[in-house]
Amino acid sequence: MSSNRLVWTRTSIWLGFLALLALGLGLLPAYGFSLAFWFYLLLWITLASGLNIMAGFTGYLPFGYVAFYGIGAYAAAVTVKMHGLPIWAGFIAAALAGVVLSLLFARTMVLRGIYFSIVSLALAVICRLLIAAMPEDVAGGSYGIALGFSNPDGAYYAMLALMLATLLTVTWLAQSRLGMALRAIRDDPDTAETVGINIGRVRLKAWVLSAVIASMTGAIEAWYTSIVDTETAFNLLVSTKAVIFAVAGGLGTVIGPVVGTVVMLIVDDLIWQHFPVLNVFLLGLVIVLLMMFLPSGIVGSLIRAKPFLRRILF
Amino acid sequence: MLEVNALRKVFGGLVAVDTISFTVPENSILGLIGVNGSGKTTIMNCINGIYDATEGAINFRGTNLVGKKPYEIARLGIGRTFQVPRLFRRLTLTENLMVPVLEDSRSNAELTEKANALLAEVDLYRIRDNHAEELSGGQQKLVELLRVMMLNPDLILLDEPFAGVHPNLCKVFLDQILKLKDAGKSFILVSHDLTSVYSLSEHLLVLNQGKKIAEGNAADIQHNPDVIEAFLGR
């Protein structure tokens, strides 16, 4: 089978799977399922996939990814609560906030490797402190903002839509020229520039895209919980979990972050059920073992072990 | 085609390239030779924008390259290979060849076809879907040259193309260079393999400790006492 036909076939199968998934997940509220687990499953898949655009496709690991999530949550909350606008206006504000913050932080991408990761982490902490220091009538101060209303079903559908949009975007990216340029930058930015890629412009596109996904996720979570505060919205565990889930599945693959999130959340749930006291210890152990024996993640390691799978998994 | 005037590159207190001038005419091969640390690769890096020249001018068909970014220089029509091959290791061979032409207006199918045709010429088509990191060093050098060919530059900088390459693969490499030369391309060739440099280059530049110590054709260079001293010692 030719390469083009293979790509077409595997993409069609994947899109078919996504359509079925959307249908199944869309029916959950109608059948009275508890939405909490499913909402957060969708949220983590979205965040891990959004982070994958930067870390997996472009090679920049933003430990401060939570900054975009937090700013999105606050932008939506301020728009809705302080200015009395509807939630869709809050989503637009969140997306704009993500774009603006990513452009402000874009200069950090001249740094590479661990230096970039550390600076992005520091910027996330600075964002949290700045928002906490703002007057209460501007951003709720250190107490945060209570939206005063919630719509879990609406938030669930919004998260489902964002997750699907994110996965479709990543699927397109994996097969697009932009995606190929990003992967070339990931492998060797200097050489990519030497062969004619404007690496500054290309990685900025990925950075903004990745940031908007996180800021929209933060906004939807704010709607779901109806409360936003700096400790939760800028909690570094958000970045950490997104990184762990994406790495567990396989950075740089489309389905890796999905598989990683599902597996890790199920393992976490099982450990909670059977070993509540040892939960954190056992979860840590699982992560250590995973990284030791599957350093490229579940999907990434499968592809490395069996190169022919490259034609099927992506 | 290319004019380098009084090029100087200083790293801290080290003068890596000391006021070097030379020209590369259209459809020619210039050989750059010298012992390790003589400044050959630094000159290449200044030409394609990896390093900013400390002083001097580099003009390519009337455009001053100093201060331009590597991607701008690549788009002007200058391609290069590296001493240690630098492929995109987790991209397939076909993808590696497509990277320089991602902004091309041709369709993906056309670009893939072109890339695969080049791979077929050097018998690498059968492993076109392999990742570049799975190739041998010699094969990587060959794919790097093919990647340059995809860009279709007018001037190609080759840094040690024959180092560590099996003689059979060297032959394939030489054939490709000659084919490109016949197609009107120009080259700057850096190599320790003097036999190849002498046979390929119309003009040679000999460097020692960042300075030009000789210039001329192969016959002149081989009998130049300064060159003999620099390579063999007194």
Automatic annotation (TrEMBL), chain B:
Entry-linked PROSITE patterns: ABC_TRANSPORTER_1, ABC_TRANSPORTER_2
Keywords recorded for this protein, A-Z: ATP-binding, Nucleotide-binding, Transport
Record InterPro entries: AAA+_ATPase (IPR003593), ABC_AA/LPS_Transport (IPR051120), ABC_transporter-like_ATP-bd (IPR003439), ABC_transporter-like_CS (IPR017871), BCA_ABC_TP_C (IPR032823), P-loop_NTPase (IPR027417)
Residues covered by the ABC transporter domain: 2-234
SUPFAM superfamilies named among the record's database cross-references: P-loop containing nucleoside triphosphate hydrolases
Recorded superkingdom: Bacteria
Keyword ATP-binding found: yes
A molecular function GO annotation: ATP binding
UniProt-listed Pfam families: ABC_tran, BCA_ABC_TP_C
Stretches that traverse the bilayer: none
GO CC, any one term: plasma membrane
Keyword RNA-binding: no
Family stated for the protein in its record: Belongs to the ABC transporter superfamily.
PANTHER family xrefs: CONSERVED COMPONENT OF ABC TRANSPORTER FOR NATURAL AMINO ACIDS, CONSERVED COMPONENT OF ABC TRANSPORTER FOR NATURAL AMINO ACIDS-RELATED
Protein name from the UniProt record: ABC transporter ATP-binding protein
Protein source organism: Hoeflea olei
